[in-house]
Amino acid sequence: MTKLLAVSPDPWRWQAHPEVWFLVAAVIAFGWWAIRVIGPRVVPAGEPITTSFQRRVFSVATVLLLVSADWPVHDIAEEHLYAVHMVQHLVITFIVPPLFLLATPAWLARLLILDEGRGSRILRRMAHPVVAGVLFNGLTALTHWSGVVQWSFDSGAFHYGVHLALFLSALLMWVPVAAPLPELRISVPGQMIYLFLMSVIPTIPAAWLTFAEGTVYRHYDDGYEAFGVTVRSDQQAAGLIMKLLGGFYLWGIIIVKFIGYSRIHHRENQQMRPAEGRHLTLRRKTDGAVDSTGD
To answer: CA 237: distance to chain centroid?
Structure first.
């Protein structure tokens, strides 16, 4: 028993991830440079470079990126529990990207996207709802292929590249919904349909994980049950997290957008009705005055 405990892996063993620290530091450095150096040169005097909301959202997104990609979440996700891996992917694809988009000032987005250069044209084409949706979901499906998962486990560089590709494709996927520029967003009804499709497509890999009879990813079946969770239970939990947690998150956004859209249209209708009523009243008064004159 003592020998078994001695060779059992420790899920809480600290591991350094300098590539993650470098990425987060680069994000912070770019944010500081944009606000302190670029902003004062392009933003007219008297106008705010950023809002307090944008600064708060940027901070939250940066912290979530660090927490989801660094120890201990990263190590437990990659070496012990695929369910934690699924939560990690949901954070870096469904939560962090739209927060970074919401944190981006409009003037900075115009510099990066609408400069009419070749890179800008390519970026706008890649952010088209059809292209971005297909690209993101295609990469998501590919990253759940057992060969890719095993290669990610064996090669740290490949694993880092996969996460970076997922994050960048997720940024493109969220542009039609959360872009800092209105001209890059689709209509609110279109956004709701778009997010609905994003919630339906992951059903296939989620069902595959949930109902698989054997071990899908062999490197998680190493004879060690982290926190007492079996390999089969871990796979099923991962599938349910992908479908239910991710689906509920997207459906929550759809509901919020539907409520906001309904309130706006209700307010517009309420504002139009009194005007129509006054027009009819004035018309009746005018007709009455004409009739009285005629009499």
So the answer is: 21
